[in-house]
Amino acid sequence: QVHLVESGGGLVQAGGSLRLSCAASGDVFSIDSMGWYRQAPGKPRELVATITRDGFTHVPDSVKDRSTISRDNTKNTIYLQMNSLKPEDTAVYYCKAETIINLRKDYYWGQGTQVTVSS
Predict the structure, then answer these.
(1) Contact 48, 39 (CB under 8 A)
(2) Which residues contact 29 (CB under 8 A, 6 or more apart)?
(3) What are the tens digits of pLDDT across the range 38-78?
(4) What are the strands, taking DSSP E only, across the chain?
(5) CA angle 58, 105, 51 (to 5 degrees)
(6) What's the pLDDT at 96?
(7) What's the pLDDT tens digit per position in 73-111?
């Protein structure tokens, strides 16, 4: 089992920046990759960024020029830095961890943190 706790959300003005954190606990040794997803009202959950255990990152083109994902393995924590925020970035941001134990894959979600970007 992996437990994820996100923090850092809130109200931000358009053009501003934010840094989200996601701290993992539990069977952290089993985590293969972690990532950030977001879901706006009435829309499906979408990928924002992922990072593997070895530090390889993937950020979709839609946010690539404004987003950076990083990790601190000593703290079992990943971060999402987003700049030049737009009102359409308003969403609940979720942290996800994918684990592998004995070839079995599982995934865990955090409870989410609200990000609201005002125009």
Answers:
(1) no
(2) none
(3) 999 999 999 999 999 999 999 999 999 999 999 998 999 99
(4) 2-7, 10-13, 18-26, 31-39, 46-52, 57-58, 67-72, 77-82, 91-101, 104-109, 113-118
(5) 20
(6) 98
(7) 899 999 999 999 999 999 999 999 999 999 999 999 999
User: Can you tell me the distance from the alpha carbon of 119 to that of 102, in angstroms, rounded to the nearest whole number?
Assistant: 48
**CA nearest to 3, candidates 21, 20, 24:** 24
Structure tokens at 29: 């040794």
Tokens for 26, please give them: 């539990």
Task: Pull the structure tokens for residue 106.
Answer: 């599982």
Query: How is the beta sheet containing 67-72 ordered, strand by strand?
Result: 2-7, 18-26, 77-82, 67-72
Give the C-alpha separation, 60 to 17, whole Å. Answer: 18
The first and second tokens of residue 7, run together, are: 């923090």
